Amino acid sequence: MVEVSLQHISRIYEKGKRPAVNRVNIDVRDGEFITLVGPSGSGKSTCLRMIAGLEPVNEGTVLIDGKDVTELRPSQRDVAMVFQSYALYPNMTARQNMAFALENAGMGKKEVAERVETAAEMLELTDLLDKKPANMSGGQRQRVSMGRAIVRNPKVFLMDEPLSNLDARLRVSTRAQIAKLQRELGVTTVYVTHDQTEAMTMGDRVAVLKDGVLQQVDEPMHLYRYPGNTFVAGFIGSPSMTLFDGATVDDDRGVHLGELCKVPVPPRVAGRVENGVIVGVRPEDWRISYPGEGGEVSGVKVTVMHIEQLGAEAFAYVELAGASAVAVRGQRIAVRLDSLAEIERLHVDSQVRIQPTRVSLFDGESEINLEYLGADAE
């Protein structure tokens, strides 16, 4: 059982200024693949380096496999780190790079060779073992870097944005390979990225950080559907959740985005809804009503500003039409178009109404999701 526990760890570079990492508390389960994600300066790489022993821990404790390693040197922690820059020796072949740490540790030649061959086979590197980094592609160099970590049989893998130097196509194939490899090896893995797609598709759980503070840790789809606060709501998802300020609450605790747009309030939070509530809607949670359609007129009136077709899916970016009691953070609203008929029916400057079918509601002051504490009930 190899678990990693970060117990209220902080990294303070300068007294009196905001800590780079501020009392972060995360428990990584045995064999889990957890991703740390956040914007630049959020503290995710610093957290990883604190686990590795490359950054001091000014406050708190780091446990690996139940052992306090806070004051131990990196070499004493039994972790292997994969860097963004590959960090390969240019004068050595792939075989020599992968074997280097084992030979330095005094391991026998036969065992070194067996470990290198096994890792190379797993990573499809067998044909590249006698090549030097200069004669490899970026993806191949990254696999050699991973192989160098694998041969050590560490307790924990630490990966710091290992795919950021690869092109888009190669990132997709390599992230799938890393996730598959981690499942096969079953090694506890902490993976840092600024790319939310990587975080959501690779991690068993995702930890979101902002300004050194942990915002939320959850399974990817639960994180997406139940963001803990407005930052997570806006950061996770592309296009991001649209957030509305200025919603009104009637006597029956109904929430309105204007006169003709009543929001579906989840029964569990109805008693906590007050004026000033912030309403969040994902792009896929809008229903479009077109002029001239029969039935009751409902929804927010908007003007189509741009239509983005991405092959498998399409989005309309719209703005509120005319004066409105509500304000949109970021001004534009993203609406997913679910059919070719919708794409063909809409055009720039056309006006339609959009009605939310599902929302997230956030407290107007703290900006915390009103459902957050009760989200596990669904």
Structural account:
The chain has 378 residues and is α+β, with helices and mostly antiparallel strands. The chain folds into two domains: 4-230, Rossmann fold (3-Layer(aba) Sandwich); 241-377, OB fold (Dihydrolipoamide Acetyltransferase, E2P) (Beta Barrel). It has helices at 44-52, 94-104, 109-122, 138-150, 168-185, 196-202, 220-225, 230-235, 340-345, and strands spanning 4-11, 21-28, 33-37, 59-64, 67-68, 79-82, 156-160, 188-193, 205-210, 213-218, 242-245, 248-249, 255-256, 262-263, 278-281, 286-289, 300-309, 314-320, 327-328, 333-337, 351-356, 360-362. It has a six-stranded mixed beta sheet with strand order 6-7-8-3-9-10, sandwiched between helices. A hairpin with a 2-residue loop joins strand 9 and strand 10. Helix 2 packs across helix 3 and helix 2 (94-104) packs parallel to helix 4 (138-150). Mean pLDDT is 92; it is low at 374-378.
Topology overview:
Layout: E1 4-11, E2 21-28, E3 33-37, H1 44-52, E4 59-64, E5 67-68, E6 79-82, H2 94-104, H3 109-122, H4 138-150, E7 156-160, H5 168-185, E8 188-193, H6 196-202, E9 205-210, E10 213-218, H7 220-225, H8 230-235, E11 242-245, E12 248-249, E13 255-256, E14 262-263, E15 278-281, E16 286-289, E17 300-309, E18 314-320, E19 327-328, E20 333-337, H9 340-345, E21 351-356, E22 360-362
Parallel strand pairs: 3-8, 3-9, 6-7, 7-8
Antiparallel strand pairs: 1-2, 1-4, 4-5, 9-10, 11-15, 11-19, 12-13, 13-14, 15-22, 16-21, 17-18, 17-21, 18-20
Helix pairs in contact: 2-3, 2-4
- Sum up the overall morphology in one term: elongated
Give Rg in angstroms. 25 Å
CATH superfamily of the largest domain: P-loop containing nucleotide triphosphate hydrolases
- Percent of sequence in beta strands: 25-35%
Q: Architecture of the largest domain, according to CATH?
A: 3-Layer(aba) Sandwich
Chain-averaged pLDDT: 92
Structural class based on helices, strands and sheet pairing:
alpha+beta
CATH topology of the largest domain: Rossmann fold
Biggest sheet character: 6 strands, mixed
N→C terminal distance: 30 Å
